[in-house]
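Quick one, tokens below. Sequence please?
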């Protein structure tokens, strides 16, 4: 366990995550009047896992499989030059995004910089009709004028706290944790495997 982790509280458990995703799936279908021209694109590394879950839930509700893509924003980040070896996962969007209603999916909405980078990366691939944003958690502290269209839960947080999603598939547990980080440490996403 990392020494940066000072105290932890669970603000969403596995059941609440599932309920939130079910609610978001219904909201996406309602706003878009069904699945016509609808596609989901998840931001790697946990947004893409949430997007997969949402696609399954939409299929359960509507009986339709909608297109799913994974978006890696490593080289679009505004802090890219400060990372000597960014972790690259690869973008896989196996459909034409032109004219589609794209729902961009991420786990935690914080400053808005990840979403800005994702929008830049997406626009390099085509011209969707609309881009909507779905996030599991909005923790505030926005630095850019970015707002989510679909939010699982608003989690007020302090600047010295980190809010992280862990998923059973890669971390052995599904929950959203809030914990304090030491000064100088980064309050970012959890690495795969849950090793903080």
């Amino acid at each position: 366990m990392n020494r940066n982790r000072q105290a932890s509280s669970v603000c969403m458990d596995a059941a609440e995550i599932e309920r939130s995703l079910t609610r978001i799936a219904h909201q996406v279908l309602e706003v878009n009047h069904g699945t016509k021209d609808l596609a989901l694109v998840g931001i790697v590394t946990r947004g893409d896992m949430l997007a997969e879950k949402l696609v399954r839930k939409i299929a359960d509700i509507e009986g339709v499989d909608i297109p799913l893509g994974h978006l890696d924003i490593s080289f679009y980040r505004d802090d890219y030059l400060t990372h000597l070896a960014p972790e690259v996962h690869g973008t896989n969007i196996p459909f034409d995004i032109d004219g589609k209603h794209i729902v961009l999916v991420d786990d935690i909405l914080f400053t808005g910089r990840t979403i800005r980078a994702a929008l830049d990366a997406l626009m390099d691939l085509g011209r969707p009709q609309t881009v909507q944003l779905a996030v599991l958690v909005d923790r505030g502290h926005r630095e850019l004028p970015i707002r989510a269209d679909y939010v699982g839960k608003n989690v007020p947080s302090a600047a010295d706290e980190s809010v992280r999603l862990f998923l059973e598939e890669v971390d052995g547990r599904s929950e959203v944790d809030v914990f304090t980080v030491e000064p100088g440490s980064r309050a970012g996403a959890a690495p795969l495997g849950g090793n903080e």
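DSSP finds four helices and eight strands in the chain. The chain has one domain: 11-78+88-180.
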